[in-house]
Amino acid sequence: MPYLHDSLLIVSDLDGTLLDHNTYRWEAASGWLGVFKQRHIPLVLCSSKSAAEIMEWQKELGIPGQPFIAENGAVVQLDERWSSSDYFPRRIAGIRHDELMNWLNDLRSQYGFKFTCFADVDENTLSGWTGLTHKQATLARFREASESFIWRDTPEMFNAFAERIADLGLMLVQGGRFWHIMHAQSDKGQALRWLYEQYRQNDGKTYITIGLGDGPNDAQLLDNVDYAVVVKGYSRKPVILRNDNPERVYHSLSYGPEGWKEGLDHFIPAE
């Protein structure tokens, strides 16, 4: 069992986990956020959101300058203390967004696939889809190495689309609201392993890792931590983990930040 006096590293998804799925409120998590800040325990945000979005949420949550994982692992922001790194300020894995959109547009033209990307719509439309403010929707469109989309075709066409995507060395990830597409080597798990190694090299110590997520796209994250909290979510697909041992994995009864708090309460005893 992890304790607050251990070297802890917390890795958390945002939407539906630390943030409420519908309101984006996070106050139920404020107690643990205060503890982490007081004890200098790193909180790595790991999300499908863009880097621009996550940096705004870091300010909101009071953790600016810490590392984070954006776009489902395609982008890794380094700690502001690690400016001497060859990858500073961020590492981008795989394909760049412009090239990715060229491929997606070619697939639409060639096969007639029907889907709508963030890049296809304006901020007002995206706000309507997500409930984000105009400013937040603007930041959500600043993708660097992935794209988010709504599928508008048949299941049979989706299967054909998935085959074409795999042929290009890309992969599809299902989030709480949207599908995401990126390079096949750009998942949350590989990004977390890479970032953990940066922590180990720069801080000269190992950490006990606790991960929290609510959707199928968080499985890679939760498979690569010592302790995992599966926050109750709204996805119709379950979060399937390689090792779902109850000594390592806790499934919350509550949604969103209430479930986030519940999971941490379960694993970290009060002092």
UniProtKB/TrEMBL annotation:
Gene Ontology molecular functions: magnesium ion binding; mannosyl-3-phosphoglycerate phosphatase activity
Protein's UniProt keywords contain Hydrolase: yes
Record keyword Hydrolase present: yes
EC number: 3.1.3.70
GO cellular component: cytosol
NCBIfam families: HAD-SF-IIB, HAD-SF-IIB-MPGP, PRK03669.1
Residues spanning the signal sequence: none
UniProt keyword list: Hydrolase, Magnesium, Metal-binding
One GO-annotated biological process of the protein: mannosylglycerate biosynthetic process
InterPro entries (alphabetical): HAD-like_sf, HAD-SF-IIB-MPGP, HAD-SF_hydro_IIB, HAD_sf, SPP-like_dom
Protein name, UniProt field: Mannosyl-3-phosphoglycerate phosphatase-related protein
Matching Pfam families: Hydrolase_3, S6PP
Domain Sucrose phosphatase-like: 175-267
